[in-house]
Amino acid sequence: MSGGEALAQSFQEWLGLVQDRLTAGAKSSGAWIACGPVAGSRLIGGAHRRALDARAPRLGGTCSGDRQAIPRRKPVSPAAPASGVAPSAAASRVLGNDMDAGYHRLSIMNTLGGTMTGKAPKPAIITCAPTGAIHTPTMSPALPVTPEEIAEASLAAAGAGAAIVHLHVRDPEDGHPVQDAGLFKEVIAAVKDKSEVIINLTTGGSPHMSVDERIAPAVQLAPELASLNMGSMNFGLFPMLTRFPDLEHDWERRHLENKDIVFKNTYADIERILKLCGDQGTRFEFECYDTAHLYNLANMLDRGLVRPPLFIQTVLGLFGGTGADLEDLAHLRRTALRLFGNDFEWSVVGAGAAQLRLGSIALSLGGNARVGLEDSLWDGPGKLAESNAAQVRRIAEMARLLHRDVATPDETRRRLDLRDSVGK
């Protein structure tokens, strides 16, 4: 059995579970789901019915506490299901006939991918975050540190199918995260010389940095895309010390063990970044770690500070943010659909072991996915990933098993309304 077929086989269980979680309600009482992208649908049976029925009021039910839809946005409404796309022959052989029903159940719910309107699902936008500011060099020999390593990892990820690379940089000597515009320029020049991949610079940097430090490279270099964190949050990395007790550099332990960190992203900070970067043509990847962050973004949209199409990156599984359970993913997706209609591109980051699982589920629902060693060092239980490109190949393979093409950088630029340039 190939690696792809093995993934497809395990994905069979996910399909049924996702359907149960996303349409959770109270079939036993004859209630209809009244909110979210599956309005008017009845709960499909499953092994988790009793647990889901017990939790139905907070998952679906009457939605009495829901924010009212904004009138000028198109509401998401149910439509007659399209026929969907039959699974590939290889996948069918592995999964058996049950996959047809499971795949169809999910695909007809997909408002973002186009199946509810009878259109083929849009190609999946894959983002790779090659190094980040969370993990440390001791944790994995594959984590790129120098500008040359980060550029090489970015190019390999682009070759494997990533349309976007989300860039951080590190001190070349000991690997600690920095916001050095000169190092960013080195990476960008090396990548743009050989690839059309979209460059997405961080404005998040590290929670240990000031906002001025964090935004300086994006303001100076004017990328076509920059990340923007949509709210403040507690930020806890200390659980990783259990797995990695022996660290090479002194800074690594200080970086990880701090329990007194608030990742500061106030309304003033967000508006300042929108102004400084947006005025020079930069568009944004809105990173949302919690439901409140989606509401913050809706407020910015209502006030005319951002414009669609919005690129929303929902981040799950970091300590201090939303968890990595399927119910968490479902709630964030429902909330985004209710707030923004179809005026956004939805992508998912699953931290750690949740990366492939949640990314694949997002793809099955017509969304997009981010992978990379910033978010997860792993390629299976206890197995470190060999490279960023390996993670991109894996998620691209999952997209194809779900009959999703992989978006090119040029197509992604059109969908996100980006310019093909970096710099003023």
From TrEMBL:
The keyword Nucleotide-binding does not apply. The keyword Zinc applies. Residues 58-88 are annotated as: Disordered. InterPro entries: Aldolase_TIM, BKACE. Transmembrane segments: none annotated. Residues 76-88 have a biased composition (Low complexity). Keywords: Metal-binding, Transferase, Zinc. One of its GO terms (molecular function) is 3-keto-5-aminohexanoate cleavage activity. Coiled coil: none annotated. This is Uncharacterized protein (DUF849 family). It comes from Amycolatopsis endophytica. The lineage of its organism: Bacteria, Bacillati, Actinomycetota, Actinomycetes, Pseudonocardiales.
